[in-house]
Amino acid sequence: MLDIKFIRENKALITKNNRARQVEVDLDLLLQLDSERQELQHKIEELRAQRNRGSKSKPSPDEIVAMREVGEQIMALEPLAKEKEMAFFELAYKLPNLSHEDAPVGETDEGNKIMYEHGEKTIFNFKPKEHFEIGAERDLIDLPRATAVSGTRFAYLKGGLVMLEFALVQHVLRTVTNQQILQQIIADKNLSILPTPFVPVVPPVFIKPEVMAKMGRLEPKEERYYIPSDDLYLIGSAEHTLGPMHMDSTFDEAELPVRYLGFSTAFRREAGSYGKDTKGIFRVHQFDKLEMESFCLSENAEQEQELFIGVQEYLMRSLGIPYRLVLKCTGDMGLPDYREYDVEAWLPGQGAYRETHTADLMTDYQARRLNIRVKRQKGTEFAHMNDATALAIGRTLIAIMENFQQADGTIVVPEVLHPFTGTTFI
User: Fold this and answer.
1) Contact between 365 and 2 (Cβ < 8 Å)
2) End-to-end C-alpha distance for the chain, whole angstroms
3) pTM of this prediction?
4) Of 199, 255, 280, 301, which sits 20 to 30 A from 126 (CA to CA)?
5) Backbone angles phi, psi at 338, to 5 degrees
6) What is the set of domains in the chain, with CATH numbers?
């Protein structure tokens, strides 16, 4: 959420940003609702003060009547004030974050900017197969049985692929909890932030609708799995419940940055992807994911995002997966995002780069909604937040299967994972 004072003073800028983000919000109505809710709240506070001043240990009959009338006025105004406040926040929550000056202006992912590529594309002396072909032939991925049991876009992962999944989890945990590795990434990227290790977290996979809305991730609702009987949503990524961990709380400046690594199963309906990636496990309803989340000072937020990208690249390079870094355009970013990058892995079976990671800088957009603050010497301000994929397990498995497949159908295990798998092939 943007600061209403900033909106009032920068209406033209907000209008331009909304256009670039392809969002329509009636700013005049928003500002009107803000004025009306503040006016009503001021009247209610004046009436409460009047009632308090008139309170005595032994009020006269006339004073009792007058105070009763004041109370009735307060009771009449409070529902109206609540109504105006709800209407204000409903509209304010539709406003996107501002866009970083680096973000290209564009309508779709075709407007994204490729920053650079890393690693040579894998070359084979045979025609490489797609992951679902390898998975079926080696009995590593069972789609037919999963479809019979659960429906389309579900899968059973089996045998060596499961061992590989938990090897990846261990590799990520060892990386982001190692201060020396983080210090090296910070030095390589010429950053000036602290190498504070990430705290591993297994978060809840259910979230209240109002909390998801404060995170700015409730929409589009058709992408979410909803449990009406409990009024809860299933999360689409671990940051959905990592971000609100500190809502309605205040950090001391010296505590920051606070960094978390969340491991969870994620759930997405993929309602808008009919006909896309219907084979295999690239686009499924249920998948495991490791997600980074941090709370930091405003002046360190952009460097914090650079650290997250550095972690992503460190992991991809350690696995030997060719990739490219992409800066997303204004029309392809999520509403809370100020600047957003994707890492896309090279998949030789498809002959294409496909997204495996995202890194989102939200500035204080989410923290303002969640009321997450920082107490500083100069006063109290809102924290700044970042989230980013450490590894989307399923898509990383795909990248390993397709890049390290052998002519006989086996898959070479990346060397860095050998201590966790106990084998060099699956």
Assistant:
1) yes
2) 48
3) 0.94
4) 280
5) -90, -40
6) 4-92 (1.10.287.40), 109-421 (3.30.930.10)
* Residue labelled with tokens 């006909």: 275
Cβ(160)–Cβ(140) below 8 Å? yes
Give the position of tokens 């199963």.
265
Instruction: Tell me what pLDDT residue 192 has.
Output: 98
Query: How many Å apart are CA 184 and CA 326, to the nearest integer?
Result: 23
What pLDDT score was predicted for residue 1? 87
Tracing tokens 């004073």 back to the chain, one arrives at: 63
Strand, coil or helix: what is 155?
A: coil
Q: How many helices (H) and strands (E) does the chain have?
A: 14, 16
CA 278/CA 293 separation, integer angstroms: 30
Residues 6+ positions from 338 with CB-CB distance below 8 Å:
97, 98, 99, 100, 361, 362, 363, 365
Q: Mapping DSSP to helix (H, G, I), strand (E, B) and coil, where does residue 328 land? A: coil
Per residue in 209-253, pLDDT tens?
999 999 999 999 999 999 999 999 999 999 999 999 999 999 999
Q: Which residues in 129-173 belong to E strands, given as ranges? A: 141-142, 156-157
Packed helices 160-176 and 179-188: angle between N→C axes, nearest 10 degrees: 70
pLDDT, residue 274, reads: 84
CB 332 within 8 A of CB 316: no
Handedness of CA 291, 296, 301, 307 (dihedral sign): negative
Alpha-carbon span 72 to 98, nearest angstrom: 43
One-character DSSP codes across 233-250: EE-SSTHHHHGGGGTTEE
Alpha carbons 27 and 31: distance in angstroms, whole number? 6
| C-beta of residue 383 within 8 angstroms of C-beta of residue 374 | yes
Residue (of 175, 218, 215) closest to 198 by Cα position = 175
User: Which residue numbers in the chain have pLDDT < 70?
Assistant: 54-57
Query: Looking at residue 57, what is its pLDDT?
Result: 63
